[in-house]
Amino acid sequence: MKIDRFLQLFVVKEKKFYPLYIEQAANIEAAAKLLVELLQEQDPEKQKALYKDIKEYEHSGDMITAKLYEELNKTFVTPFDREDINLLSGRMDTFLDFIHDAAKRMLMYRPKSVNQLLIAMGQCIVEDARILKDIMNGLEYIQKKPQEINEKCVRIKQIEHDVDDLYEQFMSDVFANEKDAIELVKLKNIGQVLEDATDRAKDVGDIVRGIIIKFA
Amino acid sequence: MKIDRFLQLFVVKEKKFYPLYIEQAANIEAAAKLLVELLQEQDPEKQKALYKDIKEYEHSGDMITAKLYEELNKTFVTPFDREDINLLSGRMDTFLDFIHDAAKRMLMYRPKSVNQLLIAMGQCIVEDARILKDIMNGLEYIQKKPQEINEKCVRIKQIEHDVDDLYEQFMSDVFANEKDAIELVKLKNIGQVLEDATDRAKDVGDIVRGIIIKFA
Amino acid sequence: MKIDRFLQLFVVKEKKFYPLYIEQAANIEAAAKLLVELLQEQDPEKQKALYKDIKEYEHSGDMITAKLYEELNKTFVTPFDREDINLLSGRMDTFLDFIHDAAKRMLMYRPKSVNQLLIAMGQCIVEDARILKDIMNGLEYIQKKPQEINEKCVRIKQIEHDVDDLYEQFMSDVFANEKDAIELVKLKNIGQVLEDATDRAKDVGDIVRGIIIKFA
């Protein structure tokens, strides 16, 4: 009976990680939604307010990442490889950083106009965030339904390809039509970071797929 | 005798990975060669046709990467660390993505002229691809001839340095002579992705060197 | 007694890594200091001389990285995971490469003026290098004082955030005030690589934190 309790201690401990990943995913989704609003916002004051909120989500994200690291340092038995727990939280944080970076560029550059294709790219980031939330909700059961989670990761890969195409179309447009070199540089760099953000979402998916492989 | 057969099953299984890596390397080499043609092509229609072919190689690359991932999920005994098998295919895919990205930029930007130094950088990417093909052909014997394979990885590192120098020269030229800011941005970004591609080839080499280290 | 000697052989062997990391950190710090000088230098001849010296440090860095790799191949018992030894030297080398790259861009682009904020970013890189030197000096005792080393890694994370803010301010300035598109592109790209360099310093810290976690 004492041993049972002892084992339970471990079980309780290792379960600490899941809610933190779920919290982080919710954080990312909230920031991604505000980014799409920001891409469509013209009013400088409202832009500033949206950016401030995104910055707060990014800060919360840092806190969650730090907490995951601390928990990891206190926990002997982890639900999957220690390194993967660390990598997963690191990559999620990086995805959030890129969302924040995209918002920051909107404020730094203040482009004269925002193309519809950029907004579509932002919406893909929101979809990535939604799928990541689903994945994190299922993480606890990854051994029981690896196929289901793998499919979600494949979907994120697909989104990354779609965004590549959007970005290609956007850049062709900009280089064909924008005659003001400074505006062109602004748009190019905002498009670039949106495209990069979806690569970072794929990085998170790759870590999850790596975890699935180890359980195979 | 039954046990022999059982063991053979494993041996057969683990051998599935090598041909896929070799196939991927051939794929990369084909795309790299077309990229050099594209860099030298002036005719828009021919450029489009070359890009279309490169895009198909990139798509085949995704298929091979997916197949490697599936094989990994079905295989219990792998010739080297499961994670390294996964990393190696991921990095090869990324190298191919960068070749595709360089081609895409040519189509998106349509620069007025292409410098000889850019073509030289493209040729270095072809050399990287050739060396990677050699490495993948030798991968099965990596424990028997680690030194030989390591030397090939070192050669890829050297190419990366050479391309750094080419890029440096190219950029100095462009910033000194190109007075049209939009053309300058185009050339800078095409040069950048060619240079980045050789970094990605080095990343593949680094994974191989990591595998050698584990066998040491 | 024979066994003692045998064990001592291992102890001696594994200790070979620490001085190489310390040497690399000193190398990085020297290059970082010259970079700050270069950012403040107007005279083209002196700029060239400073760049030449930075290039030499970068070359020494490659030598040290190669030596670490060789040692690793000869050593059976390592103070921490073989992969981490390899990753740590790789990431330190990458940080140094980015310092070198920043210097190279100064020479390639020759911007008409260098903003005070860029110099402040350079000074943050020097601080990163100093902290890394401290970390490498303590690496041998990482199991005895993980908290102390972890705090240094957290400090590097903090610097990365500070540099993000500096970069944000710098870019807002440049996009608001620089009317020459080519000068704008130059300054943007120099600022970018300085900001990226502090990300690479954080990457080194992340590897160290990963090592701490494995000992926890």
From TrEMBL, chains A, B, C:
InterPro entries: PhoU-like_sf, Put_Phosphate_transp_reg, UPF0111_domain. It comes from the Bacteria. It comes from Butyricimonas faecihominis. It holds the Pfam family PhoU_div. PANTHER family: UPF0111 PROTEIN YKAA (PTHR37298). Coiled coil: none annotated. Belongs to the UPF0111 family. This is DUF47 domain-containing protein.
